[in-house]
């Protein structure tokens, strides 16, 4: 058995069913260590002998896969924290999978950044090591490296490369007993009444590794020299169209993303937004890269694959999950207006994307009274809505970020609302 060590931070679906799963499946690692703050989950996996199960949604069925030999440690427990640091000192590949980049420095002495720094300092000699940053941020790797560097001498980071990631894998945690039974899902462990359900897709993009002589143990990933264009394809393609389908479906009272497949007009709008607006804009911007994705044929294949995956019944993707956090998703740089701005900059009028943005505005206002602090500082548009009241709401959400496209975005959204 190879003497490689994998270390992860966080034990959510992306860690448990992507990084750990692919590391385990590769056969290239002999040790798997995860730092997880949920004491109940740590104890449950330990009680199961370091074994847990995930559920993989394929087009026509759900299959189970088990991962074994996993060591979970709670960094709030001193001895567990020591074990994590020792594992970091011997690690070859690591992955952070946290709710956001804001969590890197949370937790004081036991924070992820501090643990990485303290563990790397313990190394007897520099060794080639990569750290995948799986937080949904275009510069997660740079932010993580900067956070770690604050807590250690520069020599500790010698031969260590922090990698950005583009993760197009859809996943979720199912806790509803009826759903667990209906889909015949296996729980994470016998003692944990929840299931991790992920799609089979694993074409994950990562930054190109430049460490001399280093070969990844997780060999399923694809390296790219410049990830930013592919991060834009993820946000302005995958995320934007996923949200568009969800918000339009919510207006129909649908429950699951798979329900939208029976509504040809929703899927037609999604396909037009994907190909004629998002795709056309991204191809114009990035065609010079020469990557197959940014060609008409390549982007069409990307879009058609995702449109099928987004409404896959076996994934049990709930519309309520996809449509939450409306204020963030209506941000100036986020999936709707970020994509619409890109389209406008490339000379494309994004009328189909505007329908998704308008549906998201409807969702925000309809749920206003239950959103608490998320809308506390925003002007609620009174009915009947006007272009001015909708514009005030959007400009309040955008705040200082609003730029030269703001008026066009408001007009497009208002026209979609009024249609």
Count of individual beta strands: 12
Distance between the termini: 63 Å
* Rough outline: globular
| Share in helix | 40-55%
N-to-C series of helices and strands = EHEHEEEHEHEHEEHEEEHHHHHHHHH
| Proportion of beta-strand residues | 5-15%
* Largest β-sheet summary: 8 strands, mixed
Model regions low in confidence, pLDDT < 50 over at least 5 residues: none
Number of helices: 15
Structural class, from secondary structure content?
Answer: alpha/beta
> What radius of gyration results from the CA coordinates?
22 Å
- Order of strands across the biggest sheet? 5-2-1-6-7-8-11-12
Mean pLDDT: 96
Short description:
The protein is an alpha/beta fold and 419 residues long.
Can you give a write-up of this model?
The structure is a single chain. The model has no long low-confidence stretch (mean pLDDT 96). 44% of the residues are buried. The protein has 15 helices and twelve strands. It is globular and about 65 Å long. Helix 8 packs across helix 12. It is of the alpha/beta class and 419 residues long. An eight-stranded mixed sheet has the order 5-2-1-6-7-8-11-12, with helices on both faces.
């Amino acid at each position: 058995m190879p003497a490689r060590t994998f270390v992860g931070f966080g034990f959510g679906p992306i860690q448990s069913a992507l990084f750990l799963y692919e590391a385990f499946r590769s056969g290239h690692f002999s040790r798997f260590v995860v730092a997880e703050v949920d004491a109940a989950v740590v104890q449950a996996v330990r009680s199961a002998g370091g074994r847990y199960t995930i559920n993989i949604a394929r087009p026509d069925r759900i299959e189970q896969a088990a991962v074994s030999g996993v060591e979970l440690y709670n960094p709030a427990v001193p001895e567990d924290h020591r074990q994590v640091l020792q594992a970091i000192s011997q690690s070859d590949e690591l992955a952070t999978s946290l709710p956001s980049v804001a969590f890197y420095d949370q937790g004081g002495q036991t924070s992820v950044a501090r643990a990485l720094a303290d563990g790397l300092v313990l190394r007897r000699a520099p060794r080639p090591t990569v750290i995948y940053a799986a937080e949904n941020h275009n510069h997660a790797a740079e932010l993580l490296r900067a956070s770690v560097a604050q807590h250690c001498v520069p020599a500790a980071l010698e031969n260590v490369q922090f990698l950005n990631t583009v993760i197009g894998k859809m996943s979720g945690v199912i806790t509803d007993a009826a759903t667990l039974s209906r889909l015949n899902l296996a729980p994470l462990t016998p003692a944990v009444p929840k299931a991790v359900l992920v799609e089979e897709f694993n074409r994950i993009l990562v930054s190109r590794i430049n460490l001399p002589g280093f070969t990844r143990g997780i060999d399923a990933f694809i390296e790219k020299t410049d990830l930013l264009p592919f991060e834009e394809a993820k946000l302005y393609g995958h995320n934007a169209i996923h949200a568009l389908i969800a918000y339009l479906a919510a207006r129909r009272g649908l429950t699951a993303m798979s329900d939208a497949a029976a509504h040809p007009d929703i899927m037609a709008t999604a396909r037009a937004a994907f190909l004629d607006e998002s795709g056309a804009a991204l191809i114009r911007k990035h065609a010079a890269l020469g990557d197959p994705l940014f060609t008409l044929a390549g982007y069409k294949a990307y879009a058609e694959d995702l449109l099928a995956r987004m409404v896959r019944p076996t994934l049990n993707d709930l519309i309520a999950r996809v449509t939450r956090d409306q204020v963030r998703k209506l941000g100036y740089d986020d999936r709707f207006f970020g994509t619409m701005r890109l389209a406008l900059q490339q000379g494309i009028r994004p009328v189909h994307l505007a329908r998704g943005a308008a549906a998201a505005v409807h969702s925000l206002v309809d749920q206003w009274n239950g959103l608490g602090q998320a809308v506390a500082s925003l002007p609620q548009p009174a009915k009947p809505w006007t272009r001015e009241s909708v514009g005030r709401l959007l400009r309040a959400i955008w705040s200082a970020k609003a730029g030269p496209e703001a008026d066009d975005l408001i007009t497009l959204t208002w026209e979609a609302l009024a249609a």
